[in-house]
Amino acid sequence: MDALKLYGVRDIRFEQAENPVIQSANDVIVKVKAAGICGSDISRYKLLGPYIPGMIWGHEFSGEVVEAGIAVTNVAKGDRVAGCPVVFDGEDYYYKKGEYNRSDFNTAIGAKRPGAFAEYICLPSQNLVPIPDTLSFDAAALMEPSTVVLHGLYRTSLSVGDTVAVVGAGGSLGLLAIQWVKVFGAKKVIAIDIDDAKLAIAKRLGADVIINSLQEDTEAVILQHSEGLKADLVIEAAGSPITASQVFAYAKKGGGVVFLGIPYGDVTVKRYYFEKILRSELTVWGSWSNVSAPFPGKEWSDSVHFFAEGKINTEEIITHRLPLSKGPEVFEKLMERKELFGKVILHP
């Protein structure tokens, strides 16, 4: 089968790979219909390289069941599914408590076992979530980043009528977060990014205020649009070492900050920002992964429901649809940043 394999930093190859086979009674083989490129994929391509050289890459996908093990009951041949990428290579205290996202054995496909940038993938049946016929495969491939956002929001105290600031609003996580906080009942959403084209998309997806942080005093504009109080909740979705420090200045006293983005670099917090945690008595939530009990969790069932109801717009987020063979080329274009890239969907 065709596949994209990551061999090293900026070394991804379109090659042949062996088709997966059923190895246990609970295994399912899925024909991948759509696979998304994640921001973490870009960082690993640019900076870190693979866990295992030559591993089939990718972890955001949807597809159709083509074969199922004899013990599988939740899906059947022909079912349309979204794939939860979280797999486990052991059990520990947190796993046994059902806190799967905290387990040290929590890993993702594309890391230590074959991923979704391929024609076929094999996963345990519990990792497959049925999707309705009305939901496109491309949209369902965004189910995974959606669940990352939801997992973080479920950890917060977000409530109806809140003002929410989304930092890194132009990325997939940010654009999904803008829509999800509206579903949660946020009264005002302030979108912050450094790209005007992406801020325009944020506006179309429901942001009430947009701020280019390279051109405006972000803290001052937030004050202006929050009756001088700042945001009840700040969502850090950029994964930037710079914004990971600045976000503490955007929350109101007694407010909170939730971290969704992964800063691939050391974070240095200036005294001004750090004192906001203390003097404003902020609550800070870390968020990791996208699963809960019963596995894979309400992050997935709720995403399916609201995607199917049309409450989450994915068409504005997807900017490129390409054949899998274009993978090496598009990753290099992502490095060049000469054109607007949102979510890139690869079709095996």
From TrEMBL:
Cofactor(s) required, per the database record: Zn(2+)
The keyword Transcription regulation is assigned to this record: no
One Pfam match: ADH_zinc_N
PROSITE patterns membership: ADH_ZINC (PS00059)
Family membership: Belongs to the zinc-containing alcohol dehydrogenase family.
One Gene Ontology molecular-function label: zinc ion binding
PANTHER family registered for this protein in UniProt: L-THREONINE 3-DEHYDROGENASE
Keyword tags: Metal-binding, Oxidoreductase, Zinc
CDD domains: sugar_DH
Top-rank lineage group of the source organism: Bacteria
Keyword Electron transport among UniProt keywords: no
Organism, scientific name: Propionispora vibrioides
Domain Enoyl reductase (ER) span(s) in chain numbering: 8-346
Protein name: L-iditol 2-dehydrogenase
